[in-house]
Amino acid sequence: MSSPVIAGPAFVVKDNIDTDQIIPAQYLMLVPTVKEEYDKLGSFAMIGLPEAAYPQRFVEPGQLKTKYAVLIGGKNLGCGSSREHAPIALGAAGCKVAISETYARIFFRNCIATGEVFPYESNQRLVDEIKTGDHVEVDFDNDELRANGKTYKLKPLGDVRPVVEAGGIFNYARKVGMIPQKA
């Protein structure tokens, strides 16, 4: 990680945002290991959110990247089908951090395994305090979120941080010598 602080506008969603809302099934044919398809996958991140509830789009139409490096969710973020494409789509779009009260466990693990998104957990209901577009700062060294003049403590990432920083579980395993380096 180049900086222990990620700052910028936040994108805020409520409870029970499922993987179909993060990346609908029709986009799962995109292959993340192919650069052009990885980029295109990012353009569809969060496209399954109902427009009536979320009029501000996570990725603007015609764009590949989001302006929101931080996604803030309520409870049960990433529920629904198990798909690695969900955190990959967020990462491909440029999202670096997700902060939620709780996660669907497989989505949480997929964030780590893919190395796409740092999955922080909060002890507070941030979705009632922070709105889409609010400037936030995520301080990794202090496990804090700063927004609107307040500081919120986050549950420490612990052993998750170096795995995501390495780019996922396989890159981390190579880095620490658990599996051989790529030739």
Q: How would you explain this protein's 3D organization?
A:
The chain has 183 residues and is of the alpha/beta class. It has a single domain (5-155), classed as Aconitase, domain 4, CATH 3.20.19. 25% of the residues lie in helices and 20% in strands. It is built from six helices and seven strands; from the N terminus they run E-H-H-E-H-E-H-E-E-E-E-H-H. It has helices at 19-22, 35-43, 85-93, 105-114, 160-165, 169-175, and strands spanning 5-12, 70-73, 97-100, 118-122, 135-139, 144-147, 150-155. The chain has a seven-stranded mixed beta barrel with strand order 1-2-3-4-7-6-5. Helix 2 packs across helix 3. The longest helix has 10 residues, at 105-114. The chain is globular, with a radius of gyration of 16 Å. The mean pLDDT is 95.
Low-confidence stretches: none
Could you estimate the helical fraction of the residues in percent? Answer: 10-25%
- Please give the CATH class: Alpha Beta
Count of distinct strands: 7
Question: Any idea what the shape is?
Answer: globular
Strand order of the largest sheet: 1-2-3-4-7-6-5
Q: If helices are DSSP runs of H or I spanning 4 or more residues, what is the number of helices?
A: 6
Distance, first to last CA: 24 Å
The SSE string, one letter per element, is EHHEHEHEEEEHH
How many structural domains in the coordinates? 1
Please describe the biggest sheet, giving its number of strands, its sense, and whether it closes into a barrel: 7 strands, mixed, barrel
What is the typical, i.e. mean, pLDDT?
95
CATH topology assignment = Aconitase, domain 4
What would CATH call the homologous superfamily?
Aconitase, domain 4
Portion in strands: 15-25%
Please identify, by name, the CATH architecture: Alpha-Beta Barrel
The Rg value, from CA coordinates, equals: 16 Å
The structural class is alpha/beta
